[in-house]
Description:
The protein is α+β, with helices and mostly antiparallel strands.
Amino acid sequence: MSLHIKILSFTFLILFFTSCQSVTRFTADKTPIKKMQSNYKNQKINNSSNNKDNIKTTYLNMGDKQRKLLNEADKWMGTRYCYGGEDENCVDCSGFVQNVFAKVGVNLPRTAQLQYNYTLRVQRNEIEPGDLIFFEKHGTVNHVGIYLGNSEFIHASTTGGVVHDNLDRYSTFHEIAGYGRALR
């Protein structure tokens, strides 16, 4: 086997295991999720009251559909991650987004790339709670999450399952492909 074929095979395997668009199911152990949930709860308790006030104010200014969407998304907190997962037992990023939006009557395509193609593009300064945030690797959209407001989003993380994350911190290590609006 030539060196080029070995490199291509290795590259394909890496892309396969880092993309949330795969349809093969690989489950993650629940232990890291429990630790991450515990860390998340401690982090939320330590947040300043000013941050909590900002989130409450944002929540009060939302439309009914946005509130329903974010309430549904929060019900998935702690669900473990698995490639190709589509239900409450285990879910990948695009399966999580597709399920949450379906609960409020919005049918989205299955993969992160197709969801990106489907949604209306918005700029960073225009994003609202319920909008989607898309991430890319090597020019391909491979991850998606739901914006919560106050620079926070919820997504199905490969290491922690469905978690809340800070968008500014997360985007330091993951390239944002764009923002999309499915609630119209």
